[in-house]
TrEMBL record, chains A, B:
PROSITE patterns: YJEF_N. Residues 9-219 form the YjeF N-terminal domain. This is ApoA-I-binding protein 2. GO terms for cellular component: mitochondrion. GO terms for molecular function: NAD(P)HX epimerase activity. It comes from Knipowitschia caucasica (Caucasian dwarf goby).
Length: 231, 231
């Protein structure tokens, strides 16, 4: 399997949207649902230690955040108890719609993230990091995300990151960054995933063969009808 | 479990689109993917008798047809060999996009349906009927669908219908209509499903609990993380 260098994920997405006429909404739904399934594999309800299967989903302002919102919605359907922290909402209708879908399904939204880390450790079984994603300018991370990353570096409960751990460079792990237990790669792993040593999933099974070939992705065979695979 | 009377499916969909701010594209993707999974359950690759796992997907002009297109695309990803017959294409961008996605994935489109039924029996393992769906005016079925129904009544390979068998009334089976082997109900079974005696699936697991309650749907529990259940 090959790793995608900087810009390749964006180029593939542009091709899917322009040439294949996929919709952004459609892709985000596919990816978010696949992320939720990865979480159910990595942390099945039966394995969850706290009484309630609570999950804190931290959503960024852009596409990675919307994938987090879809993931939270499907986790709710799978009987988990997600809580969302979505500090900066996008002005785009598309992203707002995903927010409303969660609100209307009575998924609670936090108005702020406790700075007292123990409160997070006590309240949730895990954190889903759907904040910055690929293509973020990590040399210039602004608030509130800088503060959130500071908090996440201290939490003791596991973190599962969507696509690229927040604060990591797409091409290499950030030395003093967060250390997720699980990484859910979308489309194909980004180069930084090569230095990730936790549980690694590839999620979202829909990529046209011509695109897989063109970008030399060498994706593994997904088992049966699963939409994800543990790498 | 309760059956939906005429108009309820449409009312639920309106609520999902207006109040919950789901997108039509998003719903069609969810339903089409779930239909493909139902087909893999009903007709697993290992059970298919012909050398090639060919499937003929007949798509109508509206939403049911688009669900068929999404189903065909996912079947292709699951290593089936779908062929699409889509005689009347919608002028709506949304539906056209689903068509392009299939075309770009090299799924063949028939330009006409053979009237010689034996050709269909010989070429395909099964037919997916994604033609008319709920809400169609079955007292006034026009060409080419009338002719297609005539052909489907004669085919010897199994038919799997999406949501409502084409030509059936939403509330009761049509006596001289087609007799599918499989019915894939979306959202919840329509009343006509009560008189269906084949393999019956409920597919698409995403419906907000408040809607399930409001419409008294009494949906069964989906097993594990499955997005479908055999009823």
């Amino acid at each position: 399997m090959s790793y995608m260098i900087k810009g390749e994920a964006a180029a593939i997405e542009t091709e899917l949207l322009k040439d294949y006429r996929f919709g952004q909404q459609q892709l985000i739904e596919i990816w978010g649902q696949a992320c939720a399934l990865a979480i159910t594999k990595a942390y099945p309800l039966s394995s969850i230690s706290k009484k309630q299967p609570t999950v804190l989903v931290i959503c960024g302002p852009d596409q990675n955040g919307s994938i987090g919102l879809v993931c939270a919605r499907h986790l709710r359907i799978f009987e988990y108890e997600p809580t969302i922290y979505h500090p900066k909402r996008s002005s785009q209708n598309l992203h707002q719609d995903f927010t409303v879908q969660c609100e209307k399904m009575d998924i609670p939204f936090l108005s702020y993230l406790p700075t007292e880390v123990q409160l997070i450790n006590d309240a949730y079984n895990l954190v889903i990091d759907a904040m910055l994603g690929p293509g973020s300018d990590i040399s210039n991370i602004k608030e509130p995300y800088l503060g959130i990353l500071g908090t996440l570096k201290q939490v003791k409960i596991p973190i599962a990151s969507v696509d690229v751990p927040s604060g990591w460079d797409e091409e290499e792990a950030t030395q003093d960054g967060i250390t997720p237990e699980v990484l859910i790669s979308l489309t194909a792993p980004k180069k930084c995933a090569a230095s990730f040593s936790g549980k690694h999933f590839l999620a979202g099974r829909f990529l046209p063969y011509d695109i897989q070939k063109k970008y030399d992705l060498n994706l593994p065979d997904f088992p049966g009808t699963d939409s994800l695979i543990e790498l």
